[in-house]
Amino acid sequence: MGGSVSYHSGQAAEDVVARDYERRGYAVEARRWRSKAGEIDIIFRGATETVFVEVKKARDFDTAAARLSQRQLGRIYHAAEIWLGTHDGGTDADARVDVALVNGTGAISVLENVMAA
Fold first, then answer.
1. What does each C-alpha distance from 33 to 4, 103, 106 come to in angstroms?
2. N or C: which end of the chain has fewer CB within 10 A?
3. Radius of gyration of the chain (CA)
4. What's the pLDDT score for residue 2?
């Protein structure tokens, strides 16, 4: 895909994921939040926790999942620590990292509480 097409496709996937989390009672705190450690696609606030979500889109869920490296996941965790260190509750706040996979038809599969190796 070209740059513009990839950008818009990624934006559409993030929109679908945001609506899914909002239906489940989460509020969007930030989108495409950047820190010195890297970018987090979407940050949600739930009743008791903060959820950091990486969105991966591909024609199928397996291909989307394969696009997430351990190195990238480590950067997401580091960025999440930076976010938590500057917000209410600090690094002791309840939080998790999810990976939201979006396939070519717009269906979503969420992997909750993904751990970095």
1. 20, 23, 23
2. C
3. 14
4. 57
